[in-house]
């Protein structure tokens, strides 16, 4: 144990023996970046309804934002005659420093009878598939615009939605 403490102190002293030693070590760490593929948004498929009845031919817009792209991108889908919709997986390869925190946001909205309706807002801090939904695919997803908003947490990730799903 004494040897480990001595080694740590020796390394610290070696790194700080110059006037700028500490600053150089910090700068070295900040400049080290890593290229990695991140899931910005997991695929979502479900049914859009009002009071349990399908909403057909409705334009749905999913806006995706992440580190370095705060303006975001927009994905548009139109519900079919049964109200069914499907948004694809979206991944990006990002280069980030070790100290940077990955953050992605997704929101889905529609316009219904002249009013904007927010169906989904999520944030995620991990790069994996379904990290914003506790690691699970959302079975039997139904987004009924007459629902009240529900909020879910998965670690630091948050989800606010009018949608409901089967946890099985």
UniProtKB/TrEMBL annotation:
InterPro entries: DUF6795 (IPR046474). It holds the Pfam family DUF6795. Residues 44-147 form the DUF6795 domain. This is DUF6795 domain-containing protein. It comes from Parendozoicomonas haliclonae.
């Amino acid at each position: 144990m004494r040897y480990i403490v001595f080694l740590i102190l020796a390394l610290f002293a070696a790194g700080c023996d110059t006037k700028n030693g500490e600053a150089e070590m910090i700068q070295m760490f900040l400049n080290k970046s890593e290229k990695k593929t991140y899931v910005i948004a997991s695929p979502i498929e479900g049914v859009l309804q009002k009071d349990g009845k399908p909403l057909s031919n409705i334009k749905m817009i999913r806006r995706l934002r992440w580190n370095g792209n705060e303006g975001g991108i927009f994905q548009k889908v139109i519900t079919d005659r049964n109200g069914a919709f499907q948004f694809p997986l979206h991944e990006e390869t990002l280069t980030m420093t070790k100290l940077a925190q990955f953050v992605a946001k997704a929101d889905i909205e529609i316009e219904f009878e002249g009013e904007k309706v927010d169906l989904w807002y999520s944030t995620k801090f991990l790069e994996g598939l379904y990290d914003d939904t506790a690691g699970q695919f959302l079975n039997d997803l139904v987004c009924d615009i007459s629902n009240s908003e529900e909020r879910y947490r998965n670690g630091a990730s948050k989800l606010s939605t009018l949608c409901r799903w089967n946890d099985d």
